[in-house]
Structure formats: structure tokens, C-alpha cells
Specification:
Nucleotidyltransferase, domain 5; 3 domains; eight-stranded mixed sheet; seven-stranded mixed sheet
Amino acid sequence: MGQEAVEFIESLILPSGDPFLLIREQERIVRKVFGDVDPVTGRRKAQTVYLHLPSGSAKSTLAAACALLLLCHPSFRIQNSQLVIAAATREQARSTAFGIVEGFIRRRYPDEVDLAGKYRVVSNAVTQEIEHLASGSTLKVTSRSPSANEGQTLLFILAEETHAWTRQADRLWDVLLKAQAKITATTPLAMVATTAGQGVGGIGHRLYTISRDIASGKVVNPSWLPVIYEASADDDWRSPEVWKRVTFGLGKYKSLDVLRNLAMIAETSATARAEFLRYHLNSWLEGVTEPWIDAATYDDEDDEDAAAPFTLDDVAHLPCYIGLDASQTDDLTCVSAVFHDEETGCFYVVPTVWCPAESIQRRTTDDGQPYAEWAESGDLIATEGNSIDETVIEARIRELYDDDRLDIRRIGYDRYGVNRMMTRLHEDGLPVLDVPQRAWPMSPAAKFTERLILDGKLRHGGHPVLRWAFLNVPLPKPSPDGNIRLSKKDRSRKIDPAVATVIAIALCAVVDNEKTLNFEDLTGRPSAEA
């Protein structure tokens, strides 16, 4: 059956007018999917196929050819079956795989009368559907609404670019798979065709993780076929040998000269490097899609000192500035102690991060991060209940201030929800300061922090929660006067430890160097202090 599938696909005509001649890797996939059968039942072994291929590798064309095979070929179709194409948007599904299938059919039957005797094709802004008249089978672009897909019986699912699916689409995948359970006459097929994404959480990363585990042998599932072309973290992304190994169909679908030029551009821009890694080397990236600081820059592999571990004792002799970004339930709370080495210009960050214990399991699932592991390692402190007790935060600040080894210069905070606590600290003589989340002082502080990271002078000790927070900060959009501020687009992407760190840096690099705010001035207006 594998040979039949290959012959059918290679009989299809591309928009260029040439037949769809499969390259070696494509033919291997087709034979594995349709030719590898159970010797007892005679049915296909593959029920889920995960195609993790770089951009520009004709994955949609291959997937569309497989869809048409199951729609019309007498050896693979079943009567009155339903096939669906799902993507992040209906327009994406319509313009890629569905449009490719429609093109294959129209080029095979260019005469409209001949076509009408074989297929019924509806393709407009509302409905995209192809019916194979002889079998009564239909291929359509499905709605993104999970409820609209209940009650179907699906022979074939094509899920395109799942890295771009929203969290709301997570249930859609589960509903579609459930609809395949009703197929008994043959083995249903679910095919995912996607490039790498960015960040964790959501169905795209979940499917990627499952496929990686199966490919590595960590999980055994003979019905799931992972096809993954990607560069590993240990690969040199600048190496043409890596490009050749990772790039699917190099020479036919993508030029080595183009890759070489893009790599040269990536040398000069962190954003261009992230795009090169994701789209051309198919590496799944951490953090948000357009990060303020990308992982490679933050980790600074060329400077081992940036992530080198250090203890409080190692930096206790340096001037210390404390930043607080507090929450009650959903976000994290962080007290970030930042120590400034005036001789080297380096800033050493010692964060204390809290999270309600009752939400750790939920956060692990929703945020896709190892909260339990962080709590076990001490990188995160789980507090009792479902909210963070203010007294715990206050106790930590007092503990740092009362430590005779430390030279605490200022304690800055975002006033949200902590004014009473800060009033108590102020009345007890602690040097607390309301740092307004406004253009001044946060914009120059954020820009200064970015420069520290780029220059390898923010020494974070490899703290995993702090790292995750910085990678979650989206690229700030400057205001007309050039100011920036840190914000988040997704509530699951916590940035609180990063904000607390920038507040602490603001105290040292902006407030102390330019002007001073009195604690009593809660408006945030700067006023000179004698």
C-alpha cells in the first residue's frame, strides 16, 4: 500500500505544472504512514503523524496530498467519511492545505464539466468543502469552536501550524480526536504539520513534547509517528553542516546560499537570530514570541560569569538595593536584592520568589513550568493557602535589612496592595521608597537593565524563575517620546521577578544618580532632597 500511496501522490500536478515528485525524506514518510501495516489485522499502524519541519519544506503540500489520497483513492477511502483541516484561523487553513487540495483536483480535471462529475467543490468566505461524489466523502475546513465539532465521525484530521493555536483551541484537538474513535472500518489518521513555536503551554507545545518523548524512546507508542527535523541546543547554529542535517529538502525547497545570508544577518541581531533558529533550524524557543531579551542573550554562553553561581556571602560587602513586586493570588511575588559592584559595574541579583502552595499544580499545568521542582530546589517558596501572606514578605525584607553583613541603601516597591506594609517599614526606619510604574524612573531603568544583560554585567546565577520571568517580557513598544515599560500579554507568562529586579536597579542607577523621591510623595513626582 505504501507504493500505491507514493504513485498516487507523484501523479498530482503542482502549480508549476510539474508532477509532485517526492524527495527521499518525503517518500520515506509516505511509505511509513501508509505502507507499515499490522501483519495480523492488515491495518495501518500509524494513527497520529507529527511532522515537525522547518519553514519552506513543503509540509502543507505533502499533508494536502495525504488528505486527497484518503478522500478519493479506492484503496484508502471509506464510504461517506469525513475529513477536516484545522488551523489557527479559517483563512490559514483555506489558503494553505485546503487550497492545495483544491488545486490538485482542478489541475487533474481542468474541464469544469469533467470536474463536476467527480467532485463538488465549494470555496468561499463562509464554506470550504470538497465532496468526492463516488464515495460521498467530504473534506472541509473546520470551525475553531470545539462545540461545533461535536458529534462528527472523522477519518482524517490535518492540524496545521499548531504552534500558533491559541489556548482556547486546546479543547478542539481533543474533540477532533474523540471524533475519530467512532471509525471502525479502518485506522483513522491524525496528521500535524507545523514548524517550531515559542514558549510553553498550549496544544502546540504539548504535541511537540509528546513527539519528542516518543522519538527519544522515553515514551513508547507505536501508533504515533514523530518526524522531527530540528537543531539541538548543542548544535552550532552557524554551521552549514547543521543546516544540511536539519533543513528538510535543502536544495529543492530552500537554498544553501539563502541560509548563509540569513545566518550572517542573525549574527548582528538577537531578533534575527531567534527567527533563524525557529523558522529555519526549527528549534522550539523559550519565552514569548517577540521577547525583550532572548534566551541566547540572557544566558550569554560566551560569558560563563553571567550564570555562575554565587552566595549571599560572596556579595554581602556590596551596596544593596531591594525591589518588591507583590501579588495576592495569580501572579508571583518577588523580593529582589540587587548588589552593585561599583568597580566592575556588575549587578548581582538574589531573588526571593513566592507562590501560593495550593496553586502549584494548577500553575504547572497552565503555565507549563516545573513549579514543584522549583519549590523543591528552593528557587520558589510555596506559602500556605491560596494567597501570599503579606507578613511573609515583610519578614523577608526585615530579615535582609537586619542582616549586619548587608549595606541596604534603599527598598523600592510597586505600591499595588502593599502600602500598609510599607508604611509600617517606613515607621520603623527602613529606607522604603515608592517607585511608580511610570516613564520615570522605570523607562531608564529598563533600558539600563537591557544594557547590563547585553554587556554580560547582570549576574543572575542561573536562577531558573528569574530567567523565565525575563524571557516572558515582550519586546516593549516605545512611546512617541521613546519611553518603554515592562508589561505582559499573557497572564501565564509571569514577569514579576524581572519587574522587581528592574525596580531595584532603578533605585541604584536612576533614582540615586539623578533625583530622589520622598516616601511621603505617593504621587511619584520627583522632589529634591537635601
